[in-house]
């Protein structure tokens, strides 16, 4: 798409609450509010509203919207990401998009795609974006 940046992040808050969707079996559902702090090419933080399905202690999948506020490559503003992921054993695949029309400030017009990975040295958000 355009500029690709690798943005390390840390989860600084995790507030789960059970979600009763009915049914039975090994799957447990929850609604989670979590907070992240970003460093590197993007500094700032986010608040995430996530719905997850888990088998035991391990999330099997999630869908989320994330409100990001900060500075991306020197431009200040905010935007919303929408992403989802699947955990299969130790592998995790999470991908999403910048929601069109949600960017503010110097980031107005931001569009792009996102991939979230968990690597040996920590969590990384890979953002492929354009502004304008």
From TrEMBL:
Pfam families: DUF3224
Name the record gives this protein: DUF3224 domain-containing protein
């Amino acid at each position: 798409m355009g500029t690709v940046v690798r943005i390390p992040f840390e989860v600084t808050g995790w507030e789960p609450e059970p979600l009763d969707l009915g049914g039975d079996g090994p799957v447990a559902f929850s609604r989670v509010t979590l907070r992240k702090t970003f460093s590197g090419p993007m500094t700032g933080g986010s608040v995430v509203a996530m719905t997850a399905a888990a088998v035991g202690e391990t999330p099997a999948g999630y869908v989320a919207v994330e409100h990001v506020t900060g500075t991306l490559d020197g431009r200040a503003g905010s935007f919303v990401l929408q992403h989802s992921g699947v955990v299969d054993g130790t592998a995790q695949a999470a991908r999403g998009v910048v929601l069109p029309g949600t960017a503010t400030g110097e980031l107005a017009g931001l569009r792009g795609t996102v991939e979230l990975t968990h690597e040996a040295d920590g969590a990384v958000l890979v953002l492929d974006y354009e502004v304008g």
